[in-house]
Specification:
homodimer; 545 residues; alpha+beta; Alpha-Beta Plaits; Uridine Diphospho-n-acetylenolpyruvylglucosamine Reductase, domain 2; Uridine Diphospho-n-acetylenolpyruvylglucosamine Reductase, domain 3; seven-stranded antiparallel β-sheet; 20 helices; 16 strands; 34% helix; disordered N terminus; zinc (chains A, B); Oxid_FAD_bind_N (chains A, B); mitochondrion (chains A, B)
Chain lengths: 545, 545
């Protein structure tokens, strides 16, 4: 507590006055804040903590195991053991009692999904993945590709007895070119590891998200992860230059180009970006990485209403322009939750209904600070924001980011969370949170009273990408709450031409709701592709489209 | 000539001395240099100038008309006239003598390709395109989608009697959101028109290329155009947020999302980006446009060798970082050609084997100039570049860009040009030009003597994207020269894991060479997609894969 207080005092010292005076610029050579979501896949912890997780088959009683899938036999296990060799490559719950070892692969960190698999395979290279899939396809054994298992929609968790194919042992950096900035790496490289490797070479992985300490870059590509700095560095559809992947029948899609421009036929690799393991397994990635910014600054503001927040965003976009690297929205409730969980004192003295975090990343600290000053003078002077602080060193930088990054963890302390990760045109973005809160309150579901299922309805997210995280924190998951929110929330988004899944994908959670964003023709065309690449339907069944 | 001299004198006045002294920054609100390639589709000019263009069927005698395609009848023409209504929507060479009117749609600006079509259709919206394609598919009438017809690989020109479906009448801006920067527009909007519309709203189309005065944004998307500033704004795979397109059977793919993040199923629109009209016709585009830079600067340098040029690029990337918007390479010969064509005096006093053009675009003129100064001091001081000039006003800005943009036109004056638009890892990028020149010289094909078929072998391009334009300027197109270059050039690129087509696509010119960049599996998978979306093969036949 005392260190938190000290920090808070330090922050207050640099409170930005109405008549803003420039202070020294913050120079960070390696801006990398600690990851919040790190997950242990060791047996003890996982097994102990998963006891109370409901099986997905119970939560979704209408799901039936596809009878055309074979069941895993001892011969299958023997085949995989012979093929993969290393003991660590096969976790065999078929012929041995390995339930504890398997459990972490059978469930998710949100404790919402739990499968019945008895076999986990960890191939080490594309050839092994190809042989595994070829065998599974011929035998009609269903599989679930799994990276760091950090998803939010149950996409990487088996439902029945699908074999988990985990990318954890494919973890080599293959090459990096310092002139072009192109990195080629195995799919199972952890995002933070890749970024640290690049940091040593003055480059940056063009993706950053809370789960970076656990998630795999192959999983990032397979789910088209967006994260904190898409605003600045763009989407994986633009940055991924090449892919190596394996189709259901074992066909190796070798398209690991390192060229930024390559117009020779359909850009097939794009189909894997965001396909959530339903047409193949990504085994290697070639990605364009920008030079690491030499200066990074972060500021935190209190804002009186949503209209002013959108004005602040417009000003940031116009004035910070090429150095703006994040514009994050947090509502007052999320900050109260972080405060309650961490015990940290608030960065600002008063409390506000909205907060935003503005980050800049540039190549010249002095220039960036001058741009920030002009921006601060403008938004403070015009009364667009009510109060703010600017980080003065790396500790403060980390501390401010914790008020944004700590939200997920703070919500976890409350029990469960219904998470909706959606895109909505900016003018209406936060209205969804208000409307949802009002709806659930009117239905008598929200309250401080322990008997009420809903603890709070909060909103935060990547405002610069029109991406809202609507979170309904519950004391326990109940059908009553779920039915009060769904499909109401999806209809609300559909009316505004938004997307029911901005960056977290469809998985199992949103499978049945795709029609609220995609029309019938699009879904039909998608199913056609699925049938083309996976005619037996063995890849990540029961999910996606 | 006198104005050119004055300009040149002005340029010399701002020559950057070894001890560089900052001068006033250049502020351009609307950086837009005149397009070099504008094409008239009016009858007279086109018909007169196309007389000597060889029919593609003569140039490619092995191509046979697909006998499963129907021939256009009077009934077909009547159907289309009834459907499209407007007289300008159908150019009918079937029942009337409209050869002169049709000719511009039958041939390309490079005068390399010429088709035999007798019918040009210009539908005005997606419904009309859908009805046209549905009819053609049922009747097995082959079609060629055509935008501004500015391509370099014969992709938009019929070979036999394929019906041309031109997007020219679909030319409306549908919407623009000033906060998000998302533009939605018809496919037939001319790139420069779109950019001017955005300029008035302080935004920028994230694509710029020489043909901007004629090319259509739908064609840009269908060919995945790269252009001058991909280095800064990224590829269309990242910037296109949504598409509206029509498949061969008339199915409307309505995927015009304006959301930056939308992870709801396979990103099907990506298949259309770079598909060159072989699976469908793009009718509408939703695209993310950045704020228009408030300051744009351009500098031009003479460099003594290629190794120093790569060092200059590395320095530009590191020091100019987020404001670097173009790094263009021009070899000495290209600049001689521009000089000969325009009569303009060289920007620099001495002659150098290499030149580069460095452009910055940022939001603060003073900061940009300071970064440029530091960069100039460094590369001049270290002797990385030998001499340079920095534009001081918009006239000089345009003038410097003309030394890069004028290359295509200068080459056109010499006769024909074999154009190879390729990606090669940076260290080897220019070696291809040297090797090609040596090869053709040793074969006795190059010389000032009019009897030699090859006038010169030159190289230029987007160095920041590892994208080289190898151009072999010939007095006439001959099989002898073609055979001396191809497939040698493709094998050379294959050995270095480059791409045989960086940004100009495959079309007819590179169809048979795809195997030098894509392996057999990839080509097989692409053909599978083509069969899926266009089972009758009516979409842009004889080309692409």
């Amino acid at each position: 507590m005392s260190s938190a207080r000290n920090l808070s005092t330090a922050l207050r010292r640099v409170r930005i006055p109405r008549s803003y005076n420039p202070t020294r610029p913050l120079i960070l050579n390696l801006p990398s804040f600690t990851s919040k979501r790190t997950f242990s896949h060791t047996s003890g912890v996982g097994a102990a903590s998963t006891k109370e997780i409901k099986y997905t088959t119970n939560a979704y009683p209408n799901l039936n195991r596809n009878p055309s899938f074979a069941e895993i036999t001892e011969e299958d296990v023997k085949f995989f053991k012979d093929l993969l060799g290393a003991q660590s490559a096969v976790i065999d719950g078929v012929t041995t009692d390995a339930a504890d070892d398997i459990e972490p692969f059978n469930s998710d960190w949100m404790r919402k999904y739990r499968g019945h698999t008895t076999l986990v395979l960890k191939p080490q290279n594309v050839d092994e993945v190809s042989k595994v899939l070829k065998y599974c396809n011929e035998r009609k054994l269903a599989v679930v590709p799994q990276g760091g298992n950090t998803g939010l929609v149950g996409g990487s968790i088996p439902v029945f007895d699908e074999i988990v194919i985990n990318t954890g042992r494919m973890n080599k950096i293959r090459s990096f070119d310092e002139t072009s900035g192109v990195l080629v790496a195995d799919a199972g490289v952890i995002l933070e590891v890749a970024d640290q490797y690049l940091a040593e070479r003055e480059h940056l992985f063009p993706l950053d998200l809370g789960a970076k300490g656990s998630c795999h870059i192959g999983g990032n590509v397979a789910t088209n992860a967006g994260g904190l700095r898409l605003l600045r560095y763009g989407s994986l559809h633009g940055n991924v230059l090449g892919l190596e992947a394996v189709l259901a029948d074992g066909t190796v899609v070798d398209s690991l180009s390192t060229m930024r421009k390559n117009n020779t036929g359909y850009d097939l690799k794009q189909l894997f970006v965001g396909s959530e393991g339903t047409i193949g397994i990504v085994t290697g990635v070639s990605i364009l990485c920008p030079p690491r910014p030499k200066a990074v600054n972060v500021a935190y503001f209190g804002v009186e209403n949503y209209e002013k927040l959108t004005r602040a965003y417009k000003e940031a976009k116009g004035q910070l322009s090429e150095i703006l690297s994040a514009f994050e929205l947090m509502d007052g409730r999320t900050q109260q939750l972080v405060h309650q969980t961490t015990g940290n004192r608030y960065p600002l003295e008063g409390e506000y209904p909205f907060y935003c975090l503005v980050e800049t990343s540039g190549s010249n600290a002095e220039h960036d600070m001058a741009k920030l000053e002009a921006f601060l003078e403008n938004i403070m002077g015009e009364g667009i924001v009510a109060d703010g602080v600017l980080a003065q060193d790396e500790t403060q930088f980390q501390s401010i980011w914790r008020w944004r990054e700590g939200i997920t963890e703070a919500l976890n302390h409350l029990g469960g969370t219904y998470k909706y990760d959606v895109s909505i045109p900016l003018p209406d973005l936060y209205q969804l949170v208000e409307d949802c809160r009002e709806r659930l309150t009117q239905m008598g579901l929200v309250g401080d009273d322990e008997s009420k299922p809903v603890h709070s309805v909060v909103g935060y997210g990547h405002m610069g990408d029109s991406n809202l995280h609507l979170n309904v924190a519950v004391r326990q998951y109940t059908k009553e709450v779920e039915k009060a929110i769904e499909p109401w929330v999806y209809k609300w988004i559909q009316k505004r031409y938004g997307s029911i899944s901005a960056e977290h994908g469809l998985g199992l959670a949103k499978k049945e709701f795709i029609g609220y964003t995609q029309n019938e023709t699009m879904v039909k065309l998608m199913k056609q592709l699925k049938d083309l690449y996976d005619p037996n339907g063995i890849m990540n069944p029961y999910k996606y489209i």
